[in-house]
Design brief:
- This protein is an alpha+beta fold.
- It has two helices and four strands; from the N terminus they run E-E-H-E-E-H.
- The two termini are about 15 Å apart.
Length: about 90
């Protein structure tokens, strides 16, 4: 499973980018399980947030059969809370 995550923005304008292929990662199965538990390929698309100062994230996952991108704002809302454990896990690999 190939995963690409891009995030950043806000007042600081910082940017983060992660590229992961779970086949080459010792914890790849755990990361895939987390995406499965989040129902990544079927979860509702988060509503866009208003505000230029809010950091935004884009997560793209390709499992070889399907590819999907989810975008959300890091605004402290439910959509952000849903994906935060996944983002935190990727930061741990970086």
């Amino acid at each position: 499973m190939k995963i690409s995550v891009k995030g950043g923005g806000g007042f600081a304008g910082s940017v983060e980018h992660y590229e992961v292929d779970t086949a080459h990662l010792p914890q790849g199965d755990a990361l895939e399980a987390l995406l499965h538990n989040l129902d990544f390929f079927h979860a509702a698309e988060p509503a866009p947030a208003v505000g230029a100062d809010i950091p935004r994230w884009e997560i793209t996952v390709d499992d070889g059969r399907q590819c999907r991108t989810v975008e959300f704002a890091e605004d402290g809302g439910p959509a952000c809370a849903r994906w935060k454990p996944f983002i935190d896990r990727l930061r741990g690999y970086g």
